[in-house]
Design brief:
- The chain has 2 helices and 6 strands, in the order E-H-E-E-E-E-H-E.
- The chain has 141 residues and is of the alpha+beta class.
- It has 2 domains: 78 residues, no CATH class; 45 residues, no CATH class.
- It has a 3-stranded antiparallel beta sheet with strand order 1-6-2.
- It starts with a strand and ends in a 7-residue tail after the last strand.
Length: 141
């Protein structure tokens, strides 16, 4: 049993090289046999040894409270407002019926929060790779 990345470094005995000229525009390099390696889950014979894990990633937006002159009037941060601590693409989080005045400040955009969540999920998946095997070769014992 291997992780998919490990399997992709192994030679696949089920790949057949057809004799003759390669298709137009393609060449075969016999010095580079990596084309004969396993293709992992892209192969119909690949079987996962365990179910896909369900990672839970919770990411909350970063925010920075207003201080003195950095309170925006109507100019959103995306139009280039600069503050030495707050990233340019953050948005103003102003007081309204739902947000108490003490919670007003600059807040990270939804896109930035989603990007951080994706990065954390990718790190979790790298730390906990799934294992699988070639179904044509039989399940490992």
């Amino acid at each position: 049993m291997h992780t998919e990345d490990e399997a992709k470094k192994k030679w696949c005995p089920h790949i057949h090289q057809v004799a003759g000229d390669p298709p137009e525009g393609q060449t075969f390099d016999l010095d580079d046999l990596s084309a004969l390696n396993c293709i992992g889950s892209a192969c119909m014979a690949w079987r996962w040894a365990e179910p896909e894990p369900e990672f839970k990633v919770e990411v909350t937006p970063h925010w920075y409270p207003y201080e003195g002159e950095d309170r925006p009037v109507k100019e959103p941060a995306t139009k280039g407002r600069y503050h030495p601590v707050v990233p340019v693409r953050w948005e103003p989080h102003t007081d309204d019926d739902e947000v108490p005045a003490k919670m007003c400040g600059w807040i990270e955009t939804d896109q930035s929060v989603a990007r951080r969540a994706d990065e954390q999920l990718e790190q979790l998946q790298k730390k906990n790779p799934r294992h699988g095997y070639c179904g044509l070769s039989g399940a490992p014992s």
